[in-house]
Design brief:
It is a single chain. The strands form 5 sheets. A 5-stranded mixed β-sheet has the order 11-17-16-13-14, with no helix packed on it. A 4-stranded antiparallel β-sheet has the order 3-4-5-6, with no helix packed on it. A 3-stranded antiparallel β-sheet has the order 7-8-9, with no helix packed on it. The protein is α+β, with helices and mostly antiparallel strands. α3 packs antiparallel against α5 and α4 packs antiparallel against α6. The protein contains 6 helices and 17 strands. The N and C termini lie far apart (66 Å). About 3% of the residues have low confidence.
Length: 428
């Protein structure tokens, strides 16, 4: 009935022993003790009531329980910078990524400024999951895991951002603790991993926070009410290389490099990754261009509709209303060639043929498959779709440069406010 931990260490090959149990509950007898191979003096202890950690070679211990249930830990193993715990009655548990513990110092823990830990290398993997396995374990996140320490929870007005930069120093993504202004997510899209928009937000709690970048560049832009059959709008994945991340909290900032490694199972070469990336990026940008133009087109058509409602009772405005109808008809034909306007739900494409943007979205989805460069057939399909799309966009450009200014001139002659064409946004 003696439940004391009884941990000892020797520094002279067993000639003398020193007890190293201070900080462990005297009722938590120890079943396993392990030394971390990546940091000298970092120890883990598995006890009758959970896991403890020591940063000073056992001189003092503190709990490392986190989300682990209070349960006997019968064995511990450190493997590839993860801590694996075998429990009695609660299965195996894994503490993913010990990098913060490897880098943590008393100065960092007690510091008055934030701290960004250097992430461990991330493999460029594509993983799947079952949506129905309620009793299945949870895999570690796929991508780069960033850990950062905040001494206090920043005030709401303090800006926080994490900027990812590629090997050339160009910005890839910027994440904040607020969702993008134009981000919207329908109920049907809640569990769709292939959506282009990324709603990931930075946590900003006091203490240690975590953020995972899934290695994806920004997805194709969308417009309100977009319904697609080929709904995979994700951007290309980062190619293997050395990237960097910059965390900014108010006026404070810090930067750290990190590695993106190739899938060790893949036979792809550097030029294969680069070819896939460039093709994927080009398809994404063209699809974004189509969706931006449809958004501008719809805004102009809405203004025309509002204008016609206001002028309906004015008999002298019949000519302007007729001109608005003609302009609307021309834009409608272009929109219907680019997008299936009868779509209202994801099942509607079963009844209404998909249009050019939906076909290009299907190619976008295929472009990110595996680690392979685009096939000759993919290139041919891309060229054919882009040629058809560019023909419609050229018609629309003529509307913006000729038809709309002519209509606005007629409207001004009649003392009516002009229709405003929204500015074209640049792609990420």
């Amino acid at each position: 009935d003696d439940f004391r931990p009884y941990l000892y260490k020797t520094t002279d090959y067993g000639a003398t022993w020193t007890e190293i149990s201070r900080g462990i509950d005297p009722a938590h007898f120890t079943r396993a003790i392990r030394a971390d191979p990546d940091r000298r003096g970092l120890l883990y202890a598995g006890t009758e009531r959970g896991v403890y950690v020591s940063f000073d070679d056992g001189a003092s211990w503190q709990s490392l329980q986190l989300e682990l249930p209070v349960v006997p830990v019968t064995d511990l193993a450190v493997k590839e910078k993860d801590l694996v715990a075998a429990t009695q009655g609660r299965g195996f548990w894994i503490l993913d990524d010990l990098s913060p513990l490897h880098q943590l110092t008393p100065e960092i823990a007690a510091g008055e400024e934030p701290h960004l830990f250097a992430p461990r290398p991330a493999h460029r993997l594509r993983t799947g999951r079952s949506r129905n396995a309620d009793n299945a374990g949870k895999n570690p996140p796929t991508g780069v895991v960033f850990h950062y320490l905040l001494p206090e929870a920043p005030a709401a007005e303090v800006e926080i951002s994490l900027e990812i930069r590629d090997p050339s120093g160009e910005a890839v993504r910027t994440f904040t603790r607020k969702p993008p202004e134009d981000a919207e997510k329908d109920e049907d899209e809640e569990d769709d991993d292939d959506e282009g928009e990324d709603l990931a937000k930075l946590e900003s709690e006091k203490g240690l926070n975590r953020f995972v970048w899934d290695l994806a560049y920004a997805g194709a832009e969308k417009f309100p009410g977009l319904v697609l059959w080929n709904s995979g709008l994700r951007g290309p994945r980062a190619v293997p290389g050395t990237y960097s991340a910059r965390l900014a909290v108010g006026d404070w900032s810090a930067e750290t490099p990190f590695e993106v490694l190739a899938d060790p199972r893949s036979s792809a070469k550097a030029e294969d990754y680069e070819a896939q990336f460039r093709f994927h990026l080009g398809v994404r940008d063209k699809l974004s261009e189509v969706h931006r133009e449809i958004g501008r087109l719809r805004e102009v058509r809405k203004q025309l509709g509002d204008l016609k409602k206001r002028l309906k009772a004015d008999p002298e405005a019949a000519g302007l209303i007729e001109a608005a109808d003609a302009l609307d008809e021309k834009m409608t034909a272009i929109e219907e060639a680019l997008y299936q306007t009868q779509n209202r739900s994801r099942q509607d494409p079963l009844n209404f043929p998909i249009r050019l943007n939906d076909k290009l979205a299907g190619l976008l989805d295929l472009a990110g498959f595996g680690d392979n460069p685009p096939t000759a057939q993919m290139g041919a399909v891309c060229d054919k779709l882009v040629a058809a799309i560019d023909a419609e966009l050229a018609k629309l450009a003529a509307v913006w440069s000729e038809d709309l200014p002519a209509f606005n001139a007629q409207a001004r002659d009649g003392g009516v406010a002009a229709v405003i064409l929204g500015a074209e946004k640049s792609a990420d």
